[in-house]
Write a structure and sequence with these properties.
Elements (H helix, E strand, L loop, with lengths): L3 H15 L4 E5 L8 H9 L3 H12 L7 H17 L2 E5 L3 E4 L4 E4 L6 H5 L4 E6 L4 H11 L7 E8 L6 E7 L5 E6 L7 H9 L3 H8 L1
Parallel strand pairs: 1-2, 5-6, 6-8
Antiparallel strand pairs: 3-4, 7-8
């Protein structure tokens, strides 16, 4: 869990506070969606049993990827893009294949159309496996999309208080930051307040 779904929701919140343009978050992980009710349920949970209940409820919504499901996500993306100024799309990340003991990339070869709908990419990686960011860039390069990467975010200490540990715009034009507190149990508004001031350069690139 890299915190990418939490980041997408927090980033959507930051954008909504920073512009009059229409902003909407689209969960593209149709096989394992991170629904608002799930995040709010975790935030309200008072015990481990309540947390486990929310996790079981989300588990029941999961399904296997199929060509039809990929097509559905791609078509919906086109529709929302045509009707809104900014769409923050939360794409699926990856999973560990126990049988082969390898980390599988999602999306794979059958999901190029889904990715092609995106104008820009923000890649999220955990601090304990930072190489995942390079792997994702290589995967995007396979689709001819690596030049659309505008930010690389390292998620560190998700249980910590939300904060920007570091943030910079590098000479290659990519915004790189280390964020703490990307946990589903943290309030999205609190995270947005903690991150917003350090995201100025990044926001300007998207909003211009």
């Amino acid at each position: 869990n890299s915190g990418k779904s939490v980041f997408s929701k927090v980033f959507g919140c930051i954008l909504q506070r920073s512009t009059a343009k229409s902003v909407w978050g689209y969960d593209c992980d149709a096989a394992a969606p991170t629904s608002d009710w799930y995040i709010y349920g975790l935030q309200r949970a008072k015990s481990q049993s309540e947390i486990d209940f929310e996790k079981r409820a989300r588990e029941a919504t999961k399904q296997k990827w199929s060509v039809a499901l990929e097509k559905q996500v791609s078509e919906r993306m086109k529709i929302v893009k045509s009707n809104l100024d900014i769409v923050v799309a939360d794409f699926p990340g990856g999973w560990h294949d126990e049988k082969s003991n390898t980390h599988k990339r999602i999306p794979d070869s059958g999901r190029a159309e889904m990715l092609a709908n995106c104008d820009s990419f923000v890649i999220i990686g955990r601090s304990d496996v930072p190489e995942r960011i390079a792997e994702w860039k290589n995967a995007l390069a396979g689709y001819g999309l690596s030049n659309r990467v505008i930010a690389e975010i390292i998620s560190e200490s998700p249980d910590a208080q939300p904060e920007v540990k570091s943030a910079r715009l590098d000479s290659d034009g990519i915004f790189r930051a280390v964020l703490r507190g990307l946990d589903r149990k943290n309030d999205l508004g609190v995270c947005a307040d903690a991150f917003r001031n350090q995201f100025g350069i990044f926001l300007n690139r998207i909003l211009c």
